Structure formats: C-alpha cells, structure tokens
Amino acid sequence: MDLYTEKAHPGDRRIRCSINTNKAKTGRQSANYPNLQNISKDKSEKSKYPIPARGCFVNDPGRLTFLVDFAGIEMRLVADAVNEEEMILATQGKHPTINDMHDLSGSCVYGEQWEWIEAFLKSPAGLSEPEWYKHACKTAGSEDPKVIRKNMRNGVKSYAFGTAYGGGLEKTGSGLFTLTWEQKLAAQDRFRARFPGVAYFTPNLAELIHRQKYVETAFGRKLYVARNKAHAGANYLIQGTAAGMLKRGEIRIDE
Q1: Per residue in 73-101, is it b (16+ CB within 10 Å) or e — as a string?
Q2: Distance (Å, rounded) from C-alpha 135 to C-alpha 140?
Q3: Do residues 21 and 29 lie in contact, with contact meaning Cβ atoms separated by under 8 Å?
Q4: Which of 115, 131, 140, 254 would you call most buried, defined as having the most Cβ atoms within 10 angstroms of its Cβ?
Q5: Which residues pair with 216 in a beta bridge?
Q6: Other C-beta atoms lying within 10 Å of the C-beta of residue 212
Q7: Shortest CA distance to 242 belongs to which of 77, 23, 38?
Q8: Residue 76 in contact with residue 68, Cβ under 8 Å?
Q9: CA Rg value for the chain
Q10: Can you name the residues that pair with 175 across neighbouring β-strands?
Q11: DSSP 3-state assignment of 118?
Q12: Distance (Å, rounded) from C-alpha 152 to C-alpha 176?
C-alpha cells in the first residue's frame, strides 16, 4: 500500500502532488502522486488510506489553512441549465415559501409527510404521530424528528440528483424510506410535472447530442460526446461548467 509519507520530499518532508488542470475531457481538475484533492473526512475501507486522513494534515506554526468550496454546485447548475425558475428562486432566497432547493423538492416529493414533519418540528403539541413516522423512526433507529427530517432530505437530494442524471426510480427512490412503492410512483409524477426540466434533463440533452454531437458549457466551451454515449452529455455539461467555475475561483482567490 502506498503511504502519504512515501510521497514526501526527503528534504523538508512536504508532500507536493501533481495538479492536472485539463486531463479529463470535461476539464475537471484532478490530482495525483498522491491525490490530495480527494482526502477522506471519515474512515473508509474503500480508500487505500483507510483512516480519516484529513486529520493527518496540520499547519505550520503561525500558518492557517483556508478552505473554500461551492455548496451543492452541481444541482444548482442543473436548475440553471434548464431554467427551473422555482428552484433558482429558492437558491437565491427569493422563493415565496421555501428558500432551499432541496426542501422545495422535499415538499413536492413527500407531500403531506413533509408538511407534517415541518409542523411537528415547529410545534409538536397536539400532533399525533402517523404510522409512516413510527415506521420511519424504526428504520432510522432514532425517534428524533430532526434526524428523520435530515434523512428524508438526504433521500430527496439523492432522488432529484439521480433523476436529473437519468436514473430509474428503483435506484433514485431507494432513499425515500418513508414512502411505499405506490407513493414513490405518485411522487415521481408530481416531480416530473412540477420540475420537468430537471426530471428530463438527461434525455433532452441526449436528443440534442444526437443532433449536434456536443454540449456547450456556460463559458462557451464545446464538449463533444459520442452519439452512442449521448446519455453522458448531462455529466459533461454540468461537470464542465463546474470545472470552469472552480478554475476561475482559484485564480480569484490567488489574486
């Protein structure tokens, strides 16, 4: 197994990885020797460094590590690419009722269940626990409504993202643990009707690629996609735009 220490310079014991700014077709930035761009926050047996490795990196005395990131950028870029107005307003904090993109999706997908959990968190007095909630507590191993809501939100995030990238309901809906299969089908219909741009993002792009063979990022970069892999166009468009944003952001931070 490779070790981080084996990559360190023998003189000052510092690790200097290689940054690949344009190795991937989409322009996505990567790193190797070693990969310091993807360091596990938690222990992972799948990693060849199966420890919470971020804790191994410390600052020199008098120095500070400054971490920046784009929060939830890919789903925001999907909403922007298809001009999904409600989601954009929620992201900007301008939606009339819900100022969070994933909470907006949650209210659509879960319907009455979402309304109930929101009301229960605000004022549980006088509200009886429905059967679906009791079952959810058993599934989640917790009776804390904040935990249940967080799990519901994570489930709908995976559903919306997976749906945008062309996933089927059996896979994308696996995290919607409070819903029966029949309820998931109904939720899918509601989501498609309310957010058609997101729901049909991948098939619509695949159709475009069959006609023109490429997608164009928000910065005007054309990324060519093979027609027999047209479904990958969604990933090319979003990852390519995100890559352009990241590189511009890095330059601005350096300045």
Answers
A1: ebbbbbbbbbebebbbbbbeeebeebebb
A2: 9
A3: yes
A4: 140
A5: 222
A6: 11
A7: 77
A8: no
A9: 22
A10: none
A11: helix
A12: 6
> Hey, what amino acid is at 188?
Q
**Residue 1 pLDDT:** 45
Q: What is the pTM of this model?
A: 0.84
Element of type H or E holding 152: helix 145-164
Give the Cα separation of 222 and 81 in Å (integer).
15
Q: 32: helix, coil or strand?
A: strand
**Amino acid (1-letter code) at residue 133:** Y
Each residue's pLDDT, cut to its tens digit, for the chain (255 residues) gives 457 778 888 888 888 889 898 888 899 999 888 888 877 666 555 555 555 667 777 788 899 887 788 888 999 999 999 999 999 999 999 999 999 999 999 999 999 999 999 999 999 988 999 999 999 999 999 999 999 999 999 999 999 999 999 999 999 999 999 999 999 999 999 999 999 999 999 999 999 999 999 999 999 999 999 999 999 999 999 999 999 999 999 899 889
In contact, 156 and 164? CB cutoff 8 Å: no
10 Å Cβ neighbour count for 147?
14
Structural tokens at position 116: 């109930």
**Two tokens at 48?**
């060849």
